[in-house]
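Q: Okay, next protein. This is Retinol dehydrogenase 12 isoform X3 from Sapajus apella. I've checked the sequence twice, so it should be correct. Can you predict the 3D structure?
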Amino acid sequence: MLVALGLLTSFFSFLYVVAPSIRKFFAGGVCRTNVQLPGKVVVITGANTGIGKETARELARRGARVYIACRDVLKGESAASEIRADTKNSQVLVRKLDLSDTKSIRAFAEGFLAEEKQLHVLINNAGVMMCPYSKTADGFETHLGVNHLGHFLLTYLLLERLKVSSPARVVNVSSVAHHVGKIRFHDLQSEKRYSRGFAYCHSKLANVLFTRELAKRLQVTARGPGCLQGPEITRQLSAYGMSAVSF
């Protein structure tokens, strides 16, 4: 009993010592720039909570005009109100966007393009994780439909506006879980076999592949600035990675 207790104590002591180093390794670089962004227009999906919300807060603090694009407008307005009060930036706006419905995506894009003549940064952040099997309004498996296809369509619809606003950037929030993913072309909608964990991993791999192909077609370089800790995606711990395309 004493031996087991000693081993357990040693194990937790080891974790206490190495945990900060492990977290630092996976966190990647730290942004230390104080560059301001007045006049820049930013769209962030799922910015009513978690990583998206904190990203919106920081970009608003730097003077950008930030659009919070999310499914729950009431939560979006609550987040925007908090960010406006915190940053003293009144240019934090909320627009409805449901990535599980292509009609909503097209309506958002149409409204945005009518409202704004420029778009400098698109951050595809929203996502779902570990959902029971379900399909989007258009019949896509939910992880694939929301995490990848929804953002794919949104980027396509806004791409010309990004091009005319160059230098511009598309940031796709992926995950270290993409290493476990595998695109199952023979069963893209997971109708033959479904695992909520692997479905998430597959969708995150799709994010990375999309980023690389977009960079190739735009003839720019794709970059991955590391991982962030994002517990809000399903109210569970999840490690994220971010891939950016600048042009």
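A: Here is a summary of the prediction. DSSP finds six helices and eight strands in the chain. Residues 2-27 form the longest helix (26 residues).
Q: Noted. On to the next one.
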